[in-house]
Fold each of these.
Amino acid sequence: MKDERIEQAKNKIKSEITEMIFFIVMISLLIKIIFLDLDFKDCITEYIIIVIIPVYQLIRMHMLKISIYQEKKQSLKNIIIIMAILIVTSALMIYKNY
């Protein structure tokens, strides 16, 4: 039988890895658009990952009836950061197409 503390530590590590991957993909998308001057079709994989991860987390947390964030201020801050990055990225993609 596994110790509950070990399981919680494993889950925390997996969660941190998911966050790291999410932010690395976000940085990759921004670098491709800003510095490498790539089109949206060249960055579609990153864009899909950036959209799918938060949507999956929200759906899964709703299904399990648990909150993803402990503090409302942290939750609002994370949502604002993600939305700002998506808006800037989308604006850059639109601007590059004209």
Note: The mean pLDDT is 77.
Amino acid sequence: MFLGRRLDREVIRGIAAAGIDRIELFIQRPHFDALDEAHGAEVRAALEEFRVEVISAHAPIYRERLKDRAARRQLQLSLADADTAMRELSIRELNSA
């Protein structure tokens, strides 16, 4: 739900208005950018304001979310990749989130 939109006060207000008080937070840019402190503060404030609780977090699966599937494959993250460089890149990206 709302995956194609940047998570903001209005999205969280809509979630609460639908009677949803617990969510899984998908930590995937541009939906939620864990590296953007201002965005994190905005989301935290809205969650508190509308009394919506994050009960789980979904780690990012791409470095960036793109509509083009072929391009997305180039940016995917995988902790189980056979390629050491890809695993290390994935670990760094997930740790930064």
Note: The mean pLDDT is 82.
Amino acid sequence: MTADLINRGIAACKENDFEKGVQFFTDALKTNEHQTEALYNRARAFAKLDKQEDSLKDFAQLKALNPTNASFIGDYAVSLHLNNRNKEAEKEFQLALK
């Protein structure tokens, strides 16, 4: 069921229906709040909707769940930058490069 919701969310986003994608990813997260694929995709969809604070929260959660994943750290840093938190973003970019 979770995989189906994620796939439907991805399909919605491919059609540029990011609101619908967010809903599918949110539904998937209701079954498992630590589902990284749903969390990652929802963060990206939030960013496309210019909901940068929501995106930042999801990327922060991803980083907390996977503190050594350079990709998640890098995306978190980009999200920090888009929220005008550039000093924190710089620190996270450096961490991602290690």
Note: The helical segments are 2-14, 18-31, 36-48, 52-65, 70-82, 86-97.
